[in-house]
């Protein structure tokens, strides 16, 4: 029974997704609630503040556990490492408020979609449903499944047939009203924060402006039995039929079911290249629509926030799309939610800072009881005793501490913005200071985005023919290869300009053909006006074909590595299919007898020279009817093809690539290439850019899937010895890394592999993966999912990973990395935490430099504030011993004139221009930092205690408040100013807790000089920041504070002494105070600079005592360095050997084909936002 009760009390929300939550049911007890309200009043609101910080305490105090079905309050807990709690009230929606009658018969469904959770969420005959709103998403209670389920979207379990036939004719107006009530409005509303929330107001205004227009779009929908209807986009519901008349900013996510269109997804991906969307086929099967074929389902989905720039009707009526998701469930909604509710970062700095705060608070509590004891011993009135004790309690924890930790990030963000690097996740800037591995995409990142055509290699009679060089200036001769290059692309004609992928554009321009829309010649093909017509241009070679019509397109997919089209040549009555893509992939779909026998060698010949190679193929389709063309499956079109030849393109390095990689290598930051291009090409680029040093060995890893009686195998070969056999389907090369972890160059070998091999290793050789990754440098033919997976595996080895890419296929990896940098032309690109408007990798060292400077600044400010609290605490403790305290103006001078100014300006020191070959400390609880705080605390304690005791030994000393006559009699010894002497007569009799004393006058300048000293020595410049004197404002403030303190120490003015509540002392004593402060400065500076900041000293300590890094990659490096059998060369291993710890990874699923919920990782949770949909 207890187990059953626990099951009813707890459930999972968004199971298997990145935002998975545990839900617990609670019922509010009115008596408990009343008692909590009384306690809140009695504690002056302190209890309410605790409940605000700890919502779980509020729920536990006010409620009792109950089954979720009966709960009026739910407590949600994240399932990640942070275990954060959220409290939500359960709301009730009443369908009886709708204006039309609803059947109360439980057997009658409310909506036609039998997959919809709405039918299972409404209680009959009450006609109400229970829901909660979590991070802008609505969830309703499913009485059948006994859990909360998301609404505002069509269920993924719908098949292609369901979407076409259930929603194809539109929803009834009654069903629309039901869905509007249950799902809520199709609106992305961002509340503008009130003016007092200044820290987040600017962001909320920007987000509000970003999404405001989304809620006001006028759209046309198809209503069942009523025809077309215009309405505001906020009234759209999942299942509505959206009519696309032409150019439109999409207000929701929708799946295209009729016609095709071209959209600009730049707002989401940063790429302004037009993307062609094709209709979802009406396949009659029960498979979920996202898995109906190998083709990426995203090619049918129109994402919210993207722009429809061109539509192409199919000839059967207007272009129709079924509304898939609304509001915050959409791609744009996910984007806004990711900004409103960012994933917390598990950075040691913040957790260590909290531990330090707890320590300081405990120190304050000790001081509190110390003060109570002293004042009670002297029988001071309870009110005064409590006041003084509370003052000491608050001295140790500086209130400016949280703001001071972020001020360095603010300065770094401003400096990055000047360098055209924009950031939407500022907390990641500190993490950039710890980056020790950077992954780069190749095309458009390391190499030029625009490719220069080098030539074509046509085939005939199963042999490669003479190369046609574009440098010759001769037109490409007519033939099947020319027809394929002219038609097999995704280019569109928009306002008279051809737009599309740069590669497609270069290829098309090389044919000298031209593109036309709505051509009068279309009747020759029996086509509608919407088809694209390709015709020979004036400079094209003579062709017997007057025109080519592109009838249908199967768009390029990163996972499929190919695209194809169906076209018709003028004068022909049959149709042709043309395909282009990765050579290995294209050869796989061609008839073997049409592929030249020397294909692998020829391919390797070009890729080894760094060329980018594309293969083309074609075939004549057997179907003769145009209507059949629209129904052909992609698998049938892309099979039994005839190989046509190769298109060779030059992929030049950007001029900034080599210097930046050299800079990173010198800084001992490891660099890795993750690309979708050919492995040989990637290796050549890695060598040319010196990512792989010339002296390094390159080891090829080729993995094969298990077959009937043969287990999965892994082959290791040196690149120099590898020969491509005719049976190989893809080139595999092994590459070394130009720098080992943190840049260590001790490793002389590098691994390289393809995405296919990585997938096999991940599945069947998982225990080998860490060994491979610590020296893996080139990963080619990687799909988007594999890129994200690889980043995650690097993170499991305790690398701090940066990722730099420029394409939509990098979005997942950019978000997965600790610091993702998108090279996008659009400042608004939000596919990664950082976006550079300058499209080269110079932004990477800039970001690392600023990250290091921000991190060191955060540590410096934090150490200063810790020491500031301890310095004041020690001084106040000493004064409390005699029932004395610093004066208000004395505190004000230290708090505002020094500490506040230091916190505001200390972090503004710029980053050092050269990257150091080591990283700054990444955690506060490190021996150097702890020892620094401890030693400086000892220094200040010694100086203050000595000054406190030594002043009592002076012949002119007296306890002012006890012996006023002695004090006044001695004033002539201290000051020549007689008016000053007379002024003290009115203060001759003082009460306990007074300010006027020789101890206060002595300790205040020492405490102030201590604060200035630690501010200076904690502002270390090189190697991570520029020298302190380059921070002009900070230097000026330190000099001004020092000068002012010396002036107050040696001045002899009545107004100053009255205002600061000092007592005049003899000049020799003042000089002694200054000498003591200078001595402490010299000792503290020497200890901090020569010992605590001496890296060589700490490395020696580590070596002597045998301390080693606990990072996984360090451990593996040490093990592999001691293993004489590593790396394996020229051998093959099998998964069933049992040696070397190989095993089958049962939990493996293909990243590309399996729903995200099945890919749960044990160490880190993958994000599932809009970028995983794109």
From TrEMBL:
Residues 217-339 form the P-type ATPase A domain. Residues 168-203 form the Cation-transporting P-type ATPase N-terminal domain. Gene3D superfamilies: Calcium-transporting ATPase, cytoplasmic domain N (3.40.1110.10), Calcium-transporting ATPase, cytoplasmic transduction domain A (2.70.150.10), Calcium-transporting ATPase, transmembrane domain (1.20.1110.10), HAD superfamily/HAD-like (3.40.50.1000). Its EC number is 7.2.2.-. GO terms for cellular component: late endosome membrane. It is a multi-pass membrane protein. It catalyses: ATP + H2O = ADP + phosphate + H(+). It is found in: Membrane. The keyword Zinc-finger does not apply. Keywords: ATP-binding, Glycoprotein, Magnesium, Membrane, Metal-binding, Nucleotide-binding, Translocase, Transmembrane, Transmembrane helix. It is an enzyme of class 7 (translocase). Residues 17-142 form the P5B-type ATPase N-terminal domain. GO terms for molecular function: ATP binding; ATP hydrolysis activity; ATPase-coupled monoatomic cation transmembrane transporter activity; metal ion binding; P-type transmembrane transporter activity; polyamine transmembrane transporter activity. PROSITE patterns: ATPASE_E1_E2. This is Cation-transporting ATPase. It comes from Ictidomys tridecemlineatus. The lineage of its organism: Eukaryota, Metazoa, Chordata, Craniata, Vertebrata.
């Amino acid at each position: 029974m207890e187990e059953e009760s626990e099951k009813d009390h707890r459930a999972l929300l968004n199971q298997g997704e990145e935002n998975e939550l545990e839900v617990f049911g609670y019922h509010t007890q009115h008596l408990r609630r009343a008692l909590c309200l009384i306690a809140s009043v009695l504690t002056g609101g302190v209890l309410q503040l605790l409940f605000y910080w700890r919502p779980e305490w509020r729920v536990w105090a006010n409620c009792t556990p109950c089954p979720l079905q009966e709960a009026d309050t739910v407590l949600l807990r994240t399932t990640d490492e942070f275990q954060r709690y959220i409290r939500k009230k359960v709301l009730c929606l009443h369908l009886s408020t709708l204006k039309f009658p609803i059947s109360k018969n439980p057997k009658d469904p409310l909506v036609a979609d039998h997959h919809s959770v709405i039918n299972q969420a409404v209680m009959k005959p009450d006609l109400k449903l229970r829901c909660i709103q979590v991070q802008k998403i609505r969830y309703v209670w499913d009485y059948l499944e006994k859990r909360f389920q998301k609404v505002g979207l069509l269920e993924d379990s719908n098949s292609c047939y369901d979407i076409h036939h259930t929603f194809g004719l539109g929803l009834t107006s009654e069903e629309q009203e039901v869905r509007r009530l249950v799902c809520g409005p199709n609106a992305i509303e961002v509340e503008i924060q009130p003016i007092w929330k200044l820290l987040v107001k600017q962001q909320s205004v920007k987000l509000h402006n970003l999404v405001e227009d989304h809620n006001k779009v006028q759209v046309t929908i198809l209503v069942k039995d009523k025809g077309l209807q215009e309405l505001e986009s906020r009234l759209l519901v999942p299942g509505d039929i959206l009519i696309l008349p032409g150019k439109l900013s999409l207000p929701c996510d929708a799946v295209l079911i009729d016609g095709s269109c071209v959209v600009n997804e730049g707002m989401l991906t940063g790429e302004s290249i037009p993307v062609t969307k094709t209709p979802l086929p009406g396949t009659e099967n029960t498979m979920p629509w996202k898995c109906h074929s190998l083709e990426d389902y995203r090619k049918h989905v129109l994402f919210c926030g993207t722009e429809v720039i061109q539509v192409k009707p199919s000839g059967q009526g207007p272009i129709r799309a079924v509304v898939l998701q609304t509001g915050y469930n959409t791609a744009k909604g996910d984007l806004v939610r990711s900004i409103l509710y960012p994933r917390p970062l598990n950075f040691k700095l913040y957790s260590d800072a909290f531990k330090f705060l707890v320590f300081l608070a405990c120190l304050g509590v000790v001081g509190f009881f110390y003060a109570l004891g002293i004042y009670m011993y002297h029988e001071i009135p309870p009110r005064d005793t409590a006041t003084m004790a509370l003052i000491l309690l608050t001295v140790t924890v500086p209130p400016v501490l949280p703001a001071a930790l972020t001020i360095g990030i603010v300065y770094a963000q401003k400096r990055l913005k000047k360098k055209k690097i924009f950031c939407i996740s500022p907390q990641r800037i500190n993490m950039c200071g710890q980056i020790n591995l950077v992954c780069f995409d190749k095309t458009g990142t390391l190499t030029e985005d625009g490719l220069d055509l080098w030539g074509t290699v046509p085939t005939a009679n199963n042999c490669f023919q003479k190369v046609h060089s574009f440098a010759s200036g001769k037109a490409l001769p007519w033939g099947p290869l020319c027809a394929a290059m002219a038609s097999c692309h995704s280019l569109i004609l928009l306002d008279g300009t051809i737009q599309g992928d740069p590669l497609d554009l270069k290829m098309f321009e090389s044919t000298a053909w031209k593109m036309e829309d709505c051509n009068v010649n279309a009747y020759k093909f029996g086509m509608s006006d919407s088809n694209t017509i390709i015709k020979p241009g004036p400079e094209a070679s003579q062709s017997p074909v007057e025109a080519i019509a592109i009838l249908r397109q199967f768009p390029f997919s990163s996972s499929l590595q190919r695209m194809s089209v169906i076209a018709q040549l003028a004068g022909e009555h049959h149709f042709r299919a043309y395909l282009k893509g990765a050579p290995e992939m294209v050869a796989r779909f061609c008839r073997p007898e049409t592929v030249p026998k020397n294909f692998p060698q020829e391919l390797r010949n070009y890729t080894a020279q760094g060329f980018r190679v594309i293969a083309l193929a074609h075939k004549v389709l057997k179907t003769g009817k145009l209507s059949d063309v629209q129904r052909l499956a992609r698998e049938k079109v892309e099979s039994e093809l005839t190989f046509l030849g190769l298109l060779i393109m030059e992929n030049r390095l950007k001029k900034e690539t080599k210097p930046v990689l050299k800079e990173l290598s010198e800084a001992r930051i490891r660099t890795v290439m993750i690309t979708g291009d050919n492995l040989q090409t990637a290796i050549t680029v890695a060598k040319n850019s010196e990512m792989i040093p010339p002296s390094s060995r390159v080891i090829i890893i080729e993995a094969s899937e298990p077959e009937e009686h043969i287990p999965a195998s892994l082959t290791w070969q040196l690149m120099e010895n590898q020969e491509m056999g005719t049976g190989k389907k893809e080139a595999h090369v092994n590459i070394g890394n130009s720098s080992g972890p943190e840049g260590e160059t001790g490793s002389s070998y590098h691994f390289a592999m393809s995405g296919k091999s990585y997938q096999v290793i991940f599945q069947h050789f998982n225990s080998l993966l860490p060994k491979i990754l610590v020296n893996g440098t080139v990963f080619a033919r990687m799909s988007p999912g594999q890129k994200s997976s690889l980043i995650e595996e690097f993170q499991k080895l305790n690398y701090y990973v940066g990722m730099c890419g420029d394409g939509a296929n990098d979005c997942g990896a950019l978000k997965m990395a600790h610091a993702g940098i998108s090279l996008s032309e659009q400042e608004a690109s939000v596919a990664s935490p950082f976006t550079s408007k300058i499209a080269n990798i110079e932004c990477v060292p800039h970001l690392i430099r600023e990250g290091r400077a921000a991190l060191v600044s955060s540590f410096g400010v934090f150490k200063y504030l810790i020491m500031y609290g301890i310095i004041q605490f020690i001084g106040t403790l000493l004064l409390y011993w005699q029932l004395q305290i610093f004066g208000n103006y004395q505190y004000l001078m230290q708090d505002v004139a020094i500490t506040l100014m230091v916190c505001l300006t200390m972090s503004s020191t710029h980053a050092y221009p050269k990257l150091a070959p080591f990283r700054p400390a990444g955690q506060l609880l490190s021996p150097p930092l702890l020892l620094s705080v401890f030693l400086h605390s000892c220094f200040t304690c010694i100086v203050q205690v000595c000054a406190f005791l030594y002043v009592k030994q002076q012949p002119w000393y007296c306890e002012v408040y006890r012996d006023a006559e002695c004090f006044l009699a001695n004033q002539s010894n201290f000051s020549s100013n007689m008016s000053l002497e007379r002024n003290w007569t009115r203060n001759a009799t003082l009460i306990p807790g007074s300010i006027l004393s020789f101890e206060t006058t002595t300790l205040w300048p020492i405490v102030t000089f201590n604060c200035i000293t630690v501010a200076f020595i904690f502002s270390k410049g090189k190697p991570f920041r520029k020298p302190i004197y380059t921070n002009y404002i900070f230097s000026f403030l330190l000099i001004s504070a020092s000068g002012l303190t010396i002036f107050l120490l040696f001045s002899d003015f009545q107004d100053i002494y009255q205002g600061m509540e000092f007592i005049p002392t003899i000049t020799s004593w003042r000089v002694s105070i200054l000498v003591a402060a200078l001595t402490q400065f010299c000792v503290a500076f020497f200890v901090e600079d020569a010992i605590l900041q001496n890296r060589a000293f700490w490395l020696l300590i580590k070596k002597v005592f045998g301390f080693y890094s606990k990072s996984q990659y360090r451990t593996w490096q040490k093990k592999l360095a001691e293993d004489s059998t590593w790396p394996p060369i020229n051998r093959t291993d099998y998964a069933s050997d049992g040696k070397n710890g190989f095993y089958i990874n049962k939990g493996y699923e293909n990243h590309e084909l399996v729903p995200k919920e099945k890919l749960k990782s044990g160490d880190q949770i993958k994000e599932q936002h809009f970028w995983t949909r794109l």
